[in-house]
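W.,

You were right to be curious about this one. When I first looked at the sequence I had no strong expectations either way, so I just let the prediction run and decided to look at it fresh. Below is the sequence, 499 residues in total, followed by the output.
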Amino acid sequence: MRTTIVFLLLAIGWQSSRALDWPQWRGPNRTGISAEKGLLKQWPQGGPKRLWINNQMGNGYSSFAIVKGKLYTMGSRRGTEQLICLDANTGREQWATNLGQELKNGWGGGPRGTPTVDGNRIYTMSGKGNLVCTDLAGKIQWQASMARLGGKTPYWGYTESITVDGALALATPGGRQGAVVAFNKQTGQVVWHSKDFTDGAQYASVVPVTHNGGRQYIQLTQKNLVGLDARNGNVLWKSPWPGKTAVIPTPIFSNGKVYIASGYSVGSKLVSVGADNRASDVWANKKVMKNHHGGVILLGKHLYGYSDGGGWVCQDFASGREVWGEKRALGKGCLTIAEGMMYCVDESRGDVALASANPNGWKEHGRFRLAPQSRIRSSRGKIWTHPVVANGKLYLRDQEHIYCHNISATGNSGASVTPTGPVGKTLAWTASVDTKSIDVIYEGKTQAVVTTVFGQPTKTQGTWRSYSGLNITDRQGKKYGTVWFNLDGGTVKQVRFDK
């Protein structure tokens, strides 16, 4: 009864708020920080409630773009990499588009990058370097091969997440024709190559910034950090970087300064880009932040991330000095930040921890372990997909499994999320499992209650009313998308389910 009242109140008294979407790698501004408010500051024992899990995503390390109630990611199934769209509220698959043959790799095959959503288009890069642009229904609009643009697939595959800026889509094939290529985002026609910047591709993604009165594109390779003129791809400035083996983390730009970090004992540095576009090192530090691929995030005046050999680290942005380090609390991993809190994922154990993002030290506010974990992950692979916080939910992945947890502080029921339809269609239900199952809750309820929670019926057959577009799982794990209520006499007498 209490659950029904809660659902009823949500349906009647839902307060509209602008959805805080996550349209690309590291969020709207590529900072790794969500603008979410009203999130849990302390997790309950066992972690926040899991709303749904989809275990059919195949191989891959791709993270998520979340826009207008849809989740976009990539996975490899039956030897083919795919762009996949799910309902972000239920986990139900909407469609999938083939991107090409699966990338094979000893650390795990499949796609690595994250799709980018821009207006009515989606842009994504396969592990073998096939850039594909689709519409929101997954229909391919254009595509481009990095190999045909002079690129050579990096050892661990193409991991770049496509940058869309203004009329352009940016990719980094690497090579003699130009390390970075700008395409007309609508047609796929090449607008320019960075002819003076011809480094081989690594694993970072382009960051667009406005500096010195113009638009610049910042990219990092194993040899150089560069700023390119957005108009023509010309090199505006360059700073050498002694990268080793793999250079992965995305550069961070703040007030005319660019921060970069790499693993393999390389460390980090801060570069100042002057008024004349001359680049000079502010500091370089080989010890504090040796970030492999879990990412570094700048919040205020401090940087947060995992440093090989140093554990979870807070680093001063201005000086590069270590503010604090924590080696024992949580293993190596990746993170995102929302409302002053770090959401950290241990790549080996699958532990997910909530910790304060502040210079006072590591303070944990709850954790849980991902379960079930992947059965198809390579023995050399780990849980490397970066977490995402969007619309009151925490999204996580371990290969074929995508998990969605409710982290809203409003009743921990997802009430801060703007619904895409009736409230009953945004929730994950069970059938004949316990007292919270849909058939148990709604037996004896009136037509008015059913309509408030599930909207207008999809079909009517005598006294039976059907409601489709639901996410229902029974005791044996069987999935249903439709519930039927027998409203004989105006109250629910029977409940049944259809696919």
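Here's what jumped out at me. Helices lie at 2-13, 438-442, 447-454. And, maybe more interesting for your project: Residues 393 and 406 are 5 Å apart (CA to CA).

Coffee later to discuss?

I.
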